[in-house]
Amino acid sequence: MILSNRRIAITGAFGTLGTAVVGRVLAEGALVAALDHAAAPRSASAFGDAVLIGGVDLADAQGANSALAQAAEALGGLDALVNIAGGFAWEKIEGSGLDTWDRMFRMNLLTAVAASQAALPWILKSPSGRVVNIGAAGAMKADLGKGAYAASKSGVARFTEALAEELKDRGVTVNALLPSVIDTPPNRTDMPDADFARWVRPEQIGDAIVFLLSDRAQAITGALIPILGRV
After folding, report:
1. Could you tell me whether strands 80-83 and 51-53 are parallel, antiparallel, or unpaired per DSSP bridges?
2. What's the pLDDT score for residue 188?
3. 126-129: Cβ within 8 A, 24+ apart
4. 36 band by pLDDT with thresholds 50, 70 and 90
5. How many CB atoms lie within 10 A of CB 93?
6. pLDDT score for 26
7. For residue 57, what are the CA distances in angstroms to 24, 30, 53, 66, 115?
8. Per-residue pLDDT, 197
9. Backbone torsions φ then ψ of 188, nearest 5 degrees
10. Which residues have CB under 8 Å from 153's CB, separation 6+?
11. Which of 23, 109, 188, 193 is the most buried (most CB within 10 A)?
12. What's the longest Cα–Cα distance across the chain?
């Protein structure tokens, strides 16, 4: 188990991708705090021994500081943070307001920044500090209706690079994964005619996250890694 006793906080942990990542990280021996804006699920069997922290506004500095402090206290510190929290919205620019732009930046970028800032006091004490962010392959070129989403995920990429540079001499690696379409129930509902077998499965993203959290990835930092499946 290559993550044995690593203390890892995972945001956006109660969604399809987050649940898969929590399970994958637990299977490799990690101690996990699972955080989400949603309330903690009543049936927690999918989360094993993970500490569940729900109802968290990670786009708010005070909320992020409180939640990450709770996670660190429960686990006895933190070695790593995985920023999965985020969301998607489709909206054309013409005729729309700024609400969607504000919401996308709060959900996708500010959550990663605030959670990272809150977790760093503990991660910097770890001999194997890690931050892994979830960006998006679609951030490299925005499609119709995806301006706000792509811009916010592009911000995640630039944030990843900047934090990696800031911490590269302090023993902490910072990387981002850029998935294409993830095979989730909402995506299947929205695109019923697609070939789901071509999409990226949450477990495959979990495998990549496990690698980036491990000692085997010590030399990798500031990387933006596409996970495209066959899209």
Report:
1. unpaired
2. 97
3. 126/7, 126/77, 126/78, 126/79, 126/80, 126/171, 126/172, 127/171, 128/6, 128/79, 128/80, 128/171, 128/215, 128/218, 129/79, 129/80, 129/167, 129/170, 129/171, 129/172, 129/173
4. very high
5. 12
6. 98
7. 25, 25, 11, 10, 10
8. 97
9. -65, -35
10. 86, 108, 109, 135, 136, 138, 139
11. 109
12. 52
- Tokens representing residue 44 in the block: 């927690």
Tokens of 58: 């990670």
pTM: 0.97
What is the rounded CA–CA span in Å between residue 166 and residue 152? 21
SS3 string of 107-161? HHHHHHHHHHHHHHHHHCCCCCEEEEEECCHHHHCCCCCCHHHHHHHHHHHHHHH
Q: What are the E-state strand segments in the chain?
A: 7-11, 31-35, 51-53, 80-83, 129-134, 172-179, 224-227
Tell me what percent of the residues of the chain surpass a pLDDT of 90. Answer: 98
Assigned token pair, 147 = 């301006």
For the chain, domains (ranges, CATH) are 7-227 (3.40.50.720)
Token pair listed for 18: 């987050």
CA-based nearest residue to 10, from 68, 74, 77: 68
Q: Which tokens belong to 67?
A: 């939640």
